[in-house]
């Protein structure tokens, strides 16, 4: 499906939509990422939307945000000049834009405008293929646009791909009020509940098969689908593109170790994931919640791989993934590292428990990954009671990090900790006491 950009590009839509990507960099805002890397990610998001040509990208340094138009008058004029110079049809702002700001900026610049949430929703709408995916995207879009009411709603008839933020039918006048939107939400939720029940029946059927579920999770474009294809022989879309995979895919696979598992490929996570999508895609991500093992795939060659890993961990926590669920961390794309960094990554992975360095593209490290999956799933757990002194804070914190604590009781001089752990975790705990 492609976005109808005829309203943006003139009659007949003879050229692609020319987009300008802006990353507002607020000087006083706390930051984990550099503005340059944030802009690069925003540009990658823009490229992931069909029919878009990025003709300009820039970081806009701001001392403060202006409530009415986001930018000050000087910046507004600079950007307007750039819009005219580059013949821009669409401005993509990498951050939240209020309905008032969007209306004012579109009026001043005489172009369409999308913020980060709207752009991600557009991408998801274009990529959704399953019935559930389509319904979830529409529900998320309604939640997002209910506060705006600056677009008409004929796009909800699914006459075209995308959601209608960029172009297409019904872009000129508001044709539905909040009551109409609420009625649409009720209808979509009713349809989605039927789809969810079907998925629950499928999960119940799989539960009767004695195969554990292994869920691949990670930041978008970390290489999950390439890894999935390598391990299963499937042909899931795997491109160097954000959100190449949207709908979950599951395959039964026999690992080289002989272990049989069900492998699940999931939608990639991203920083500042719209809250509407976190809620709407909860049903899709239930495969992660019910997984016996989570394999966190990281793009170890990315300059902000640590920040991406932190975003994934935060979203998993938001989804309610239990700390007791075993996890492995896969440092993917080691083939993209230079020799020195590659050697360092391999050495660090070797020293880090539950971490493996791989290249899904070349197949390097996948045998070790299969072995680690097998060993993790085959490990039996035993219940023990530990008595620790209050000075044993480091080891007690480690037990909580491992997700093995089932309860504890405080005494005057000691803490009684109840654990459910594997033999491997028990050995590591004992070694910590010897150091």
How would you describe this protein?
This protein is of the alpha/beta class and 435 residues long. The protein has 3 domains: 1-201, 3-Layer(aba) Sandwich (Rossmann fold), CATH 3.40.50.11060; 209-378, P-loop containing nucleotide triphosphate hydrolases (Rossmann fold); 381-434, Alpha-Beta Plaits (2-Layer Sandwich), CATH 3.30.70. It has 15 helices and 13 strands. A 6-stranded mixed β-sheet has the order 6-7-5-8-9-10, with helices on both faces. α6 packs antiparallel against α7 (178-207). The radius of gyration is 24 Å and the shape is globular. InterPro entries: G_HFLX_dom (IPR030394), GTP-bd (IPR006073), GTP-bd_M (IPR032305), GTPase_HflX (IPR016496), GTPase_HflX_N (IPR025121), GTPase_HflX_N_sf (IPR042108), HflX_C (IPR045498), P-loop_NTPase (IPR027417). One of its GO terms (cellular component) is cytoplasm. Residues 212-381 form the Hflx-type G domain. Its cofactor is Mg(2+).
Secondary-structure content class: alpha/beta
| Model regions low in confidence, pLDDT < 50 over at least 5 residues | 1-13, 151-161, 168-173
Tell me the name of the CATH homologous superfamily of the largest domain: GTPase HflX, N-terminal domain
**Roughly what percent helix?**
40-55%
At the third CATH level, what is the topology name of the largest domain? Rossmann fold
Function: GTPase that associates with the 50S ribosomal subunit and may have a role during protein synthesis or ribosome biogenesis.
GO molecular function: GTP binding; GTPase activity; metal ion binding; ribosome binding
Pfam families: GTP-bdg_M, GTP-bdg_N, HflX_C, MMR_HSR1
Keywords: Cytoplasm, GTP-binding, Magnesium, Metal-binding, Nucleotide-binding
């Amino acid at each position: 499906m492609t976005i109808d950009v005829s309203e943006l590009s003139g009659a007949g839509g003879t050229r692609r939509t020319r987009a300008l990507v802006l990353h507002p960099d607020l000087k006083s805002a706390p930051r984990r990422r550099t503005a340059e890397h944030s802009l690069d990610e925003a540009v990658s998001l823009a490229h992931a939307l069909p029919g878009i040509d990025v003709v300009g990208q820039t970081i806009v340094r701001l001392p403060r945000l202006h409530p009415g138009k986001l930018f000050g008058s000087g910046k507004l004029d600079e950007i307007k000049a750039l819009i005219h110079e580059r013949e821009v049809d669409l401005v993509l702002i990498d951050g939240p834009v209020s309905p008032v700001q969007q209306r004012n900026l579109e009026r001043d610049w005489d172009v369409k405008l999308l913020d980060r949430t709207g752009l991600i929703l557009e991408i998801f709408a274009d990529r959704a293929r399953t019935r559930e995916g389509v319904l979830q995207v529409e529900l998320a879009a309604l939640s997002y646009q209910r506060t705006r009411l600056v677009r008409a709603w004929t796009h909800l008839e699914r006459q075209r791909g995308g959601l209608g933020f960029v172009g297409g039918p019904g872009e000129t006048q508001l044709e539905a009020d909040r009551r109409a939107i609420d009625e649409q939400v009720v209808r979509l939720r009713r349809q989605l509940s039927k789809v969810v029940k079907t998925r629950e029946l499928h999960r119940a059927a799989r539960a009767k098969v004695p195969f554990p579920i292994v869920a691949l999770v990670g930041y978008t474009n970390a290489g999950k689908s390439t890894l999935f294809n390598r391990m299963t022989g499937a042909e899931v879309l795997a491109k160097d593109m954000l959100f190449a995979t949207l709908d979950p895919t599951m395959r039964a696979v026999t690992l080289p170790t002989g272990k049989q598992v069900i492998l699940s490929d999931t939608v990639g996570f991203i920083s500042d994931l719209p809250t509407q999508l976190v809620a709407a895609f909860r049903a899709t991500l239930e495969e992660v919640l019910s997984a016996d093992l989570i394999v966190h795939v990281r793009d170890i060659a990315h300059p902000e791989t640590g920040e991406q890993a932190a975003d994934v961990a935060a979203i998993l926590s938001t989804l309610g993934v239990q700390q007791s669920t075993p996890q492995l961390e896969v440092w993917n794309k080691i083939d993209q590292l230079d020799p020195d960094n590659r050697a360092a990554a391999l050495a660090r992975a070797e020293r880090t428990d539950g971490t493996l360095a791989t290249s899904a593209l070349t197949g390097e490290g996948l045998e070790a990954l299969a072995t680690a999956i097998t060993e993790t799933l085959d490990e039996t757990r035993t219940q023990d009671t530990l008595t620790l002194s209050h000075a044993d804070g480091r080891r007690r914190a480690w037990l909580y990090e491992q997700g093995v604590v089932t309860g504890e009781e405080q005494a005057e001089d000691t803490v009684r900790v109840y654990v459910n752990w594997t033999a491997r975790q028990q050995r590591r705990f004992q070694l910590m006491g010897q150091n």
